[in-house]
Amino acid sequence: MKNLPVLLAIGCLAVCPGFARAALINGRTYVPVADWARANGLGASWSQRGDEVVLTSRTTRLVFDVNSRNADINGIQVALSYPVAGARGTLLISQLDLDTTVAPLLYPRRSDKHITTICLDPGHGGRDTGNRAGWHYEKLYTLALAGALRDQLVRAGFRVFMTRTSDTYVDLPLRPALANRRGADLFVSLHFNATVVGRDEVEGPETYCITPVGAGSTNGHGEGSDDGPTPANRREDNSLLLAYEVQKSLVQSMHLNDRGVRRARFAVLRDATMPAILIEGGYMSHPVEGRRIFSDAYRLQMAQAIVRGILAYQRISGQ
Q1: CB 62, CB 73: distance < 8 Å
Q2: Which of 25, 160, 255, 279 is the most buried (most CB within 10 A)?
Q3: Is 74 domain-assigned?
């Protein structure tokens, strides 16, 4: 194994009782990546770049960046809660990430709950315009995407209702509350991104699900800074799998830049009692992707890709 940079001071690292090669870093349990890989039938090697470790089996390929929260799980970017750490020549991954990110995606639990009803949440609306690109308002395109997605889901055999069907404002807490009250089996919130810096470079979808208890969000905006449990954490594994399958479908079927599966305690996610995700379908600010987002035909393709992701989730989870 290559010589690794030390992520944290060596004084932070101590052997954990009862787990021969586990360690504590800033009070969190870390496990040697090589040990976990062997226990799960995966081979480990370094990439040619030298700053990535690659774990592979016949059906699985994981790539972890050293001193980073970035992970590649079978070709899709997934944000970890804590960086993979290098200390004393050993590469370590947090036990929390193994339990709440890696395992739920590699070994998804099957469920006997059948998906019949889906709540779609077109982001923003009314006085809340969302992002803006010229005279284009996010609130209008999330509603248009929701309409296209509703039609595709109904065609696939699902019952669908929406948190808004016109250009009206709906308080954020009322959106998951409506889904809870009407017994939705899935909650899907739809948004589009924008940026001021790097408009010509930043593009692609990203899909969010609830942040694990005790971890920080990866959205960077500070929503729900309290790291305690929320109602959504009860279905955390399902939400992660749903987010992953939808992100994979968007990226692979539409050949889009993968900005990854991310974690956030958004208000529309925190109180959902069913698997819940928030999709940022791309960047309105990008000169090419923005024009596509404003196109009916492109949003129809996106709706079809989201449906494929939901159907894949349904198949894998046994729902």
Answers
A1: yes
A2: 279
A3: yes
Sequence letter at residue 255: H
Would residue 138 count as lying in a domain? yes
Residue 134 to residue 137: CA distance in whole angstroms: 8
For residue range 61-115, what is the model confidence (pLDDT) as tens digits?
999 998 899 999 999 999 999 999 876 678 899 999 999 999 999 999 887 678 9
- Sort residue 152 into left (φ over 0), alpha (ψ -120 to 50) or beta: alpha
| Alpha helices by DSSP H, the chain | 33-39, 95-97, 103-106, 138-155, 174-181, 236-254, 267-270, 289-293, 296-317
Give the per-residue pLDDT at 25. Answer: 84
224 in a domain, yes or no?
yes
Residue 205 clears pLDDT 80, i.e. is over it? yes
Looking at the structure, tell me whether residues 243 and 198 fall in a common domain: yes
Question: Which of 83, 106, 129 is at the close of a domain?
Answer: 106
Phi, psi of 62 (to 5 degrees): -115, 140
Checking if the pLDDT of 182 tops 70, the result is yes
Residue 300 lies in domain: 117-317
Residues 95, 27: Cα–Cα separation, whole Å: 12
The mean per-residue pLDDT over the stretch 49-60 comes to 88
Mean pLDDT throughout 222-235?
81
Compute the C-alpha angle 242/247/251, nearest 5°: 155
**Position 88, amino acid:** R
Residue pLDDT, tens place only, 240-276: 999 999 999 999 999 999 999 999 999 999 999 999 9
What's residue 207's pLDDT? 98
Nearest 10 degrees: CA dihedral of 4, 6, 7, 11?
A: 150
Q: Do residue 183 and residue 237 come from a single domain?
A: yes
Q: Are 88 and 172 contained in the same domain?
A: no
Residues 6+ apart with CB under 8 A from 27: none
- Residue 235 CA to residue 243 CA, distance in Å, equals 12
**Does 39 map to a domain?**
yes
